[in-house]
Amino acid sequence: MDLVLNVADYYFFTPYVYPSTWPEDEIIRQSLSLLVVTNLGAYILYFLFATLSYYFIFDHSLKKHPLFLENQVYREIMCTVKALPWISIPTVAIFLAEIRGYSKLYDRIEDSPYGWLGVILSMASFLFFTDMSIYWIHRGLHHKLVYKRLHKPHHVWKITTPFASHAFHPMDGFLQGVPYHIYPFFFPLHKVVYLALYIIVNLWTISIHDGYYQVPKILEPFINGAAHHTDHHLFFDYNYGQYFTLWDRIGGSFKYPSALKGTGPMHYIKKVVGKNVNGHARNGCQNEELFNGENLKTK
Question: pTM score, two decimals?
């Protein structure tokens, strides 16, 4: 994050905002600058990519589904807009520790323990570590002692849009983001790679809420895509994973996606609502018994 902060200082904060007598490495100034940069970056990432996904990927026929709420898109956006500033406060504390030298982030490839191989291995390690950590955090958030207070607001959305991707209770959003932020305090990671991965995981979070169910056939057993996460929202206690199905399989919470079996929400629209679907026909959903009171958990 110091790379971003240095650019912000050079082009904006130092010449236009702060007095010249205030050192750039002073902790209060860094905290204030990080708060601005973190919020601005979060809003830009969210609105830019969720909007692109909503208009170019999300199948708007899903809005005809009976579980799609009135004014849902507006409500998803407002939930996110209200949550992001609160999520940013503890996140900034972690970023502050990072830029003040407490992490294992490094600037040059030469600083990698194993050169380019180390950089590549760190990417795989980052994905494994965060996927494992988020699985257990996410599953813990479904425990009855904390679910209603923290995680239930995200499960209001049964048929999600990309705008639901960050529509969390603030503490829920922060807890599920913690693995991304603490990884470089345990393992070496290139600073540019860290920023790239941070952007990519935000895009992935948007993508698993966009209702686009297609995953290359060969990867279906391994990748936790939108089809898997749709079933998580519909059936509650399955498919907690972020990128992969590994931990759901280990933890006994894996459910093969109804959409990939031909029994997903799109077919319900086709068959029960009786409307023509002109969107992504290749989604190929067939039949889903969503409303028998047994299959769908409306917690």
Answer: 0.87
